[in-house]
Amino acid sequence: MGNKITNICCIGAGYVGGPTMAVIAAKCPHIKVTIVDLNVARIAAWNDENLDNLPVYEPGLAEIVSQARGRNLFFTTEVEKAIDEAQMIFISVNTPTKTYGLGKGKAADLKYIELCARQIAAVSKNDKIVVEKSTLPVRTAEAVRSILDNTGNGVKFQILSNPEFLAEGTAVEDLLSPDRVLIGGDTDEEGQAAIKALADVYAEWIPRERILTTNVWSSELSKLTANAFLAQRVSSINAMSELCEKTGADVNEVARAIGMDSRIGPKFLKASVGFGGSCFQKDILNLVYIAKSYGLNEVADYWEQVVIMNDHQKVRFAAKIVKTLYNTVSGKKIAFLGWAFKKDTNDTRESAAIQVADELLYEQANIAVFDPKVEEDKIQADLNYLDTRTKEENAKLATAFQDPYEACKDAHAIAVLTEWDEFKEYDWQRIYDNMKKPAFVFDGRAILDGKKLTDIGFVFHVIGK
Ligand code: UDX
Ligand code: UDX
Ligand code: ADP
């Protein structure tokens, strides 16, 4: 080991594995990169001739994939073959929050990670470097090591932690020029050699000073910490948004004023209807669970409040709609602009839209959704996953539209849930003309021009003012 890497396998062709490996392949033509997944449909979509059908939408991703696919980037369901041939194996499978048993609702479900480790151990006939790419609780590498060492064929494994810091919607950009790459490994000589082998891969396009190396535990914990700090900023500004609404302060002005303090900085201070995505909530709950398991109750409570605040922000947004619409939305059409958890992605995991919709469905509203990248079946699946009412009821009360003007037609109110740029460019006069009056807009992302809308005749409400 420690030799130059020429063959990489990645288990998991999702939002993290797909873009990350595509960029590695594009930047390292001498490395054969094979991405495997159990999900046959997903692999077929990655191999689709038509690049519009890739399973992950990210600006710039299709170009990168078309550049490398078939040359040194391959997508396949032949997991064992790819593991066998690789010198380095990335584990990039999902680690959802447990929905059953001990730690239900908080702990990360590591069953997919364990399955991967067992499969790698069973198949490997020579020494390999195993890289944890998925976000994992601190000390997961210990479990992975134990499985590899106890079920393998006597070959040697090095385990590295290399957490992904890309944000969806800017994944390609983040991968091409990351603030930093973090690699954690064992402190002994073999561990350091493995770290170097992976660092050399990234050094093909990333300056060495941005490649940070630590021990495994620091690396695992840094990922959770980074997401917790980012989410905390959003919850902090969201907490202030509610106070702004009561006091006449404007949250955007407050954010600008504090953001110019270089100790605070301007980023991640955008008040919203609440953060979503596959990472923030999951990672914080995970952190809470880990803290509790060490008996650190104050630490756990401190971080849990970030999630509690986020839930509150979603619930209060829905409550404001109900209250403003004369305390009843029963039978009223409410148009949702946006369903994805942020713009420029088709990912809807933990999106604020889901919970806001659920709250309004409790009140018997009819929800009409338009999102430029999210289809009806995903919206229904997200609602059904909550298990708060039957599939049939969800399908009856919530409908997806292909056209934003159709979604808004005859609506009593419009709620902006995602900050897609195109929403700003719509013909708002046309939308107004076709709505019930008074026509309400609730801007959960503070992207619309409030003055323009008020001049047209809308009753305009925005987070934090
Ligand atoms: C603070 C604000 O920084 C300043 O802008 C405002 O005008 C007044 O309040 P001050 O209280 O004088 O200033 O000191 P500051 O440097 O902010 O430190 C406050 C406390 O936080 C100190 O006890 C300091 O030791 C502690 N601190 C600060 C840390 O423990 N860690 C840090 O990283 C920074
Ligand atoms: C996040 C981290 O940014 C990334 O480093 C990590 O690897 C994975 O988790 P992601 O979930 O893709 O990335 O998106 P991010 O841009 O962080 O946004 C998360 C959520 O916070 C979104 O719902 C977004 O709309 C919301 N948000 C973000 C705000 O509401 N206000 C902000 O100022 C910033
Ligand atoms: P992320 O956002 O972390 O990338 P995704 O859910 O988008 O999460 O992707 C994870 C992928 O990992 C899924 O496509 C899933 O089918 C795949 N996967 C999970 N377990 C295994 C496994 N044991 N072998 C191969 N693929 C797996």
The percent range for helix content is 40-55%
Give the radius of gyration.
23 Å
Bound molecules: uridine-5'-diphosphate-xylopyranose, adenosine-5'-diphosphate
Q: Provide a count of the helices.
A: 18
Main sheet? 6 strands, parallel
CATH structural class of the largest domain = Alpha Beta
What is the count of structural domains?
Answer: 2
Can you give the mean pLDDT?
96
β content, as a range?
A: 5-15%
Outline the structure in words:
It is a single chain. This protein is an alpha/beta fold and 465 residues long. The protein folds into two domains: 7-206, Rossmann fold, CATH 3.40.50; 217-465, NAD(P)-binding Rossmann-like Domain (Rossmann fold, 3-Layer(aba) Sandwich), CATH 3.40.50. Helix content is 45%, strand content 14%. It has helices at 17-27, 40-46, 61-68, 79-85, 111-123, 140-151, 171-176, 189-202, 216-247, 251-259, 280-293, 297-324, 352-362, 376-386, 391-397, 404-408, 428-433, 450-456; strands spanning 7-11, 32-36, 73-76, 88-91, 128-132, 157-161, 181-185, 211-215, 333-337, 366-370, 398-400, 413-416, 440-443, 459-462. Helix 5 (111-123) links the parallel strand 4 and strand 5 (128-132). The radius of gyration is 23 Å and the shape is globular. The model has no long low-confidence stretch (mean pLDDT 96). Bound molecules: uridine-5'-diphosphate-xylopyranose (UDX) (2 copies) and adenosine-5'-diphosphate. Adenosine-5'-diphosphate binds next to helix 5.
